[in-house]
Amino acid sequence: MKRIFKITFMVLATTLFFASCVKDLDTLPIDPRDMTSANVYTTTSGYKKVLAKVYAGLSVSGQQGAAGNPDISGIDEGFGEYLRGYWYHQELTTDEAVIGWNDQTIKNFHAQTWGSGDVFIAAMYYRIFFQICQCNEFIRESSETKLDDRGFSGAERAEIVKFREEARFLRALSYYHALDMFGNVPFVTENDPVGKFFPTQIRRDALFNYVESELRSIEPLMTPARQNEYGRADQAAVWSLLAKLYLNAPVYNGQDKNTECITYCNKVTGAGYALEADYEKLFLADNSVDNQEVIFAINFDGLKTRTWGGTTFIIHAAVGGSMVPADYGVDGGWGGTRTTSALVNKFNLASDQRAMFWTDGQNLEINDIGTFTDGYAITKFKNVTSAGGGGQDKTFTDTDYPLFRLADIYLMYAEAVKRGGAGGDEGTALTYVNALRERAYGNTSGNINANQLTLDFILDERARELFWEGHRRTDLIRYGRFSQSTYLWPWKGGVSDGASTAITYNLFPIPSADVSANSNLTQNLGY
C-alpha cells in the first residue's frame, strides 16, 4: 500500500498539464516543455486535451499516473488523489467504514477527533482548489474573446463552447464539495487575476447561491442527457448535482428547497435512465458497458489511469484476512478498510443481495480498529468483469466510481416528498423505493407499504443502497445524526460503543497553514 510520511503543499505555478486520463476521451499526453497557451489552444484537439486533464483531476493526481511528478508537491500521489481523499472524508467519518492503518492521523477520522493541522484534511482541501484552478484556467482560455482572437468559428467554436460548459460543471462540483465539507472558503473564478494574490473568503450561503447560479446557467447549454461521450458530464449530471444541492439546502443556507429537489429529480427520471438489473454489476471492472443507471462517474483504466487512489485504493484496501485477492481481480490485499456492525445490522443478511460482506474469519464487532479481522469486510467493488474475467491490470483497476446514479435520484425524490416538497407524489416515491428493493431481493418479498416509507426508513435505505459511494457523511448531517447526536456507532468519538461528539465536526477545518498565510480567512468555529 502507499503510505504518507511527510506533507508540504505547494500548488504548481501552472495548470496547463496533460495526462492520459478519462476513458473514451481519446487523449494523449503532451510534452510539458511544449505547452503555452499560444500553441496548445490552436485546435479543438488541443482544447479537448486540456479538458481531459481537467476531468483527470478527479481520478489521478499527477502527470505520470502512479509513477511520480504529482500535481501538488510534497504529497504521496495515492493520498493526494481526489476521490481517495473524498472517500476518506465521506466514509471513514461515519458508521460505514473504518481503516486499520496507522498512517499519521487517519484514525482520527472515525473517532471524529481531527484538528486544523490534519494532513489528510489539508490534502483534500488543496486538491479541491487545485481542481478549481484548473477549471478556471480552461474557462479563461475558452472565453468568447479568446475564441475570437484565435479565429474559431462554426462547428469548432461550438464544440469548444461545450467543453467550456463542462469545465464550469466540474468547477461547480468541486465548489459543491468545498461548500459541503468546509463551509466558508476562499473564492476564485476565471475573472480573478492570474498570479499570486490572497483570495477573499465566501460565506457558505453565498457559495450555495454561486453553485446554484452556475448550474442553472449552464443547464440549457450542456449536451442533452445520455448524449455525451461516456465519462463526460451532460445535462443529467447538472440536474443531479442541483437535486443534491437543494436536498441539503437547510444545512447550507437554512432554506427549504425540497420542491426544487423534486423538480430536478423529475428531470433525471424523465431522461431515459433505467436501473441496472444486477446490482453487483454497477461496481465491477466493466461497469461502463451498457450501463443505463450511472449518470456521472469518475473513470478508471488499469492501463491509462494508474493511481494509488481511486478504485485501486477502494478495492485493494478492502481485501485482507482470509479473502483471496484474485477473487477481486487484484494482486494483493492491503488489509485496511472494513465496516461497523451499525451498517451490517441495517440489512436482512439472508435476502438482501446488497449485503456484500465478507464474514469468514471476521468479527462483527470491532474490538481493535487496527485489526483487519475486527469488522466485516466489504466486497462491493471488484476489479473483475461481469463475465468473471479480470481487469486489464491486477494492481491498477478498471472499475469506475459512480458519483451520481439513478438509485440515488429515486431516494432523493422520496426524501424530498416526505419532507413536504411540492410537485411530488407519495405513490411515486413508494414505487421508486420498492424498485430498488425488488432488485435487491430478486422479488417483491422486501417491498414496503406506504406507512413504512418514513424519513428514518429512507436514511437506512440510503445506507443499504449507497454504502461506500461517498454519500453517508452528508446524509447523516442532513438528518442531524452525524456529530452531536444520540445516533451512535462503534468507535464514534473514539469510544468502543460510540459517543456523541461536538457539532464542530459537521465541518472540517480550513488547514491551519492556509489560515496563517491568508489574512482574509477566518477559521471554522471550534478549531
Quick description:
The chain has 527 residues and is mainly alpha-helical. It has a domain at 10-221 and 508-517: Alpha Horseshoe (Serine Threonine Protein Phosphatase 5, Tetratricopeptide repeat). The protein has 18 helices and ten strands.
Describe the structure.
With 527 residues, the protein is mainly alpha-helical. It has a domain at 10-221 and 508-517: Serine Threonine Protein Phosphatase 5, Tetratricopeptide repeat (Alpha Horseshoe), CATH 1.25.40.390. It contains 18 helices and 10 strands. It has helices at residues 37-40, 44-56, 82-92, 108-111, 119-141, 144-149, 154-182, 204-218, 235-247, 249-252, 258-269, 310-317, 341-344, 406-418, 426-441, 455-466, 472-478, 512-517, and strands spanning 10-11, 72-73, 98-99, 185-186, 201-202, 294-298, 337-338, 357-358, 377-378, 401-405. The protein has a two-stranded antiparallel sheet with strand order 1-2. Strands 3-7 form a two-stranded antiparallel sheet.
